[in-house]
Specification:
single chain; 4-stranded antiparallel sheet; 28% strand
């Protein structure tokens, strides 16, 4: 188990006779960002709550830095930080007051609490707002403060449960930068998300979970290679040629094209790239003007849809 931060084997969580988490096995290496990707209700939060010792494991086993989650919970809590989907702070108090309270609850002295609170406010660019009530914070500021609270004890492992839910694109990007910096500073991150671009941008490795089961896992590139196909995209010069072009694709590629009528764009998945040339030659013979064409690998969205059907 050397250099393994999290290891689970066949862990299960039952609720009312149903498996919310169903036999999950995974390993998270120290110093990496590991993403748990899945739709709502897939079991992501339940999995994190078991690993964070907040709910019991029905069967199977889990270890955090070699310590058993079921029998060494108190030791594990000293090693981890958890940021849930919703802010745990008191909205009527200021940022500074919230951090001091949580610092004292974590056993820091009064002077150490003030020092650590100021350090975290500076780290998360909240120092200018330290005396502002949380109810007046923006969504991004609240999420940064909630993350700061989970880092009071400088945990080696940080659980982030959908850390950017509800944030605008700019604020999400700022949170991504914060998360990357935490790893540079020596932390290991296990995060859940339903945003495929977030998993693609942040995670070194990803596990896709659906109906409580891990259905696939690997690096983003490995998951994309799962489809084993190249996407050939053709933008037509004339929209009234789309049906004719689709018929040609079906004849030559032996598979249908996906069409975006508003963009005059056809997309077809191919394993044999020679067919691309055949299609362009046939379009020319049939007087179907091609405005542009491109070749790309599948996106994580397409991998997710292929694997889960959702």
């Amino acid at each position: 188990m050397e250099n393994i931060a999290v290891h689970t084997k066949d862990i299960v969580k039952n609720f009312s006779g149903k498996h919310a988490v169903d036999g999950v096995t995974l390993s998270v290496k120290e110093g990496e960002i590991f993403g748990i990707l899945g739709p709502n209700g897939a079991g992501k939060t339940t999995l994190l709550r078991m690993l964070a010792t907040l709910t019991s494991i029905s069967s199977g086993e889990a270890q955090i830095f070699g310590k058993n989650v079921a029998t060494e919970a108190s030791k594990i809590r000293n090693l981890i930080g958890l940021t849930g989907q919703y802010a745990t702070v008191d909205e009527e108090l200021t940022a500074m007051e919230n951090l001091i309270i949580f610092s004292r609850l974590n056993g820091l002295t009064s002077s150490a609490s003030k020092s650590r609170s100021l350090e975290l406010l500076k780290q998360f660019s909240l120092l200018d707002a330290k005396d502002k009530a949380i109810k007046n914070f923006s969504g991004g500021m609240r999420r940064r403060l909630d993350l700061a609270v989970s880092l009071i004890t400088k945990p080696s492992l940080i659980f982030l449960d959908e850390p950017t839910t509800g944030l605008d694109p700019r604020t999400r990007g700022e949170m991504w930068d914060v998360i990357r910096q935490l790893v540079k500073d020596g932390s290991t991150i296990l995060l859940t998300t339903q945003y495929l671009d977030e998993a693609d941008q942040l995670a070194d490795r990803i596990a896709i979970i659906d109906q409580g089961k891990i259905v696939s896992q690997g690096t983003p590139d490995e998951l994309k290679a799962h489809l084993g196909e190249t996407y050939f995209e053709i933008t037509l010069g004339q929209s009234n040629q789309a049906d004719k072009a689709c018929a040609i694709v079906q004849k030559i590629a032996k598979k249908p094209a996906t069409i975006l009528p508003e963009q005059n764009k056809l997309t077809v998945k191919l394993q044999d790239t020679k067919i691309m040339t055949q299609l362009l030659v046939e379009f020319d013979h049939q007087d179907i003007p091609v405005q542009e064409f491109s070749v790309r690998k599948p996106t994580l969205d397409e991998v997710f849809l292929e694997i889960t059907g959702k």
